[in-house]
Amino acid sequence: MRIVTDIYNALHLRKSGRLLTSQTDGIGYRQGDKTDMLGPIQTNDRPVHNKKIMGFRLPGKRWFKRLFWSLAVIFLLMNFVAFCHAYRFTHFSSGQGTRPDVDELSIPQIVKMLFLGIDNPRPMNNLWPGRAFATVKLYSHKKLECWSIKIPNPKGTVVFFHGYGGQKSFMLDKSEEFLRMGYNTLLVDFMGCGGSQGNQTTVGFKEAEDVKAAYDYLTLNGVKNIYFYGTSMGSVAILKAIHDYCIEPAGIMIECPFASLYQTTAIRFEAKHFPTVPFVGMMLFWGSVQNGFWAFSHKPTEYAKDVYVPTLLLYGEKDERVSRWEIDAIFANLPGKKKLVTYPEAGHENYLNHYKKEWLADVRAFIQQE
Question: Which residues does 364 contact at the CB level (< 8 Å), separation at least 6?
């Protein structure tokens, strides 16, 4: 029995310093003994809180509390930053001007931008048509302003939809070329841009309703042979409008549409050398909350699957905002008659700047064969 007691004392009660005494033989170890058969015995009666495992001392409860609150503060701060960036990205400020260039900002301005987002001035029209036009007001979820330019005996009508941060005056040069080809044109300001109502943009999601409003306006007025022309966000809005509302223009010409809102947001972050994970996901989440739609589901690659109308897809091979694989994915998903044209040295820009001759030949060939 003494052997059993010795082993129990040595293996289980050394930390407390209290050893059991064998009652059968009256022999045992008193508290305070320095050694036992297996080695030194702890003499301190105070409980041991900092345990050791494999020679390493584990942190106490206070350390875990500090870690928890530190992580909580960091998490809240990250969400605050994502919330601010999402709002700035999808809402225009009342001031006019251009978006600031990060490379030209001072250190305090960069710090402010990192926490509060980049100021996004409202896009305003700075040019007007060089020929007679009429201002048309349409009613979508916001009041829209459009320019209608007509010629005698038109072959049809081309409706123009600008990109993110743009306005209808950006499309005047393309409009002029189609007027010369014999087509009326209708240039649309998306919500929040130019002369239209609001200060919000949803990067093509709710803008699809604006596309439908323009189409309905023309069809209700008996217009036939309607074509859509969009650039970037405008292209995405066209794809989504056809997907959502089953509208059937005679054909669409779309420049550099992105594959998904997540992808295009990530590319913008990478261009400024900002970390994409987890900030892009957090930004899209708060953008969804602020704008009333699930931003993660905004995928033009999926919209393209329901676009059966003839499509001319245009892309600049040096586009820094839309990758080639995005264009290929959209093109592959288009089930109808389609053609892909790329311009080797063009970026995310107006293709008329350096490829006007080629662009004219491409759109003329497309629109004449339909």
Answer: 181
Which residue type sits at 127? Answer: L
Other beta carbons less than 10 A from residue 349's beta carbon: 17
- In sequence order, the β-bridge partners of residue 339 are 312
Residue 67, burial from CB neighbour count under 10 angstroms (0-12, 13-18, 19+): exposed
Tell me: the pLDDT tens digits for 108-145?
Answer: 766 666 767 777 889 999 999 999 999 999 999 899 99
Does the pLDDT of residue 15 top 50, yes or no? no
- Return d(Cα 51, Cα 61) in angstroms, integer: 12
Q: Give the pTM.
A: 0.81
Q: What is the pLDDT of residue 106?
A: 64
Task: Please give the structure tokens belonging to residue 276.
Answer: 């994409």
Q: Domain spanning 134-260+298-369: which superfamily? A: Alpha/Beta hydrolase fold, catalytic domain (3.40.50.1820)
Q: How far apart are the first and last CA of the chain?
A: 103
From residue 48, how far is each of 51, 60, 261 by CA, in Å? 7, 11, 55
Residue 69 identity: W
φ/ψ (deg, to 5) at 154? -70, 150
Q: Is the peptide bond before 278 cis (omega within 30 degrees of 0)?
A: yes
CA distance 1 to 25: 8
Would you kindly state where each structural domain of the chain is located, as residue ranges? Answer: 1-50, 134-260+298-369
Distances (CA, A) of 266 to 47, 259, 261, 263, 269: 54, 12, 9, 5, 5
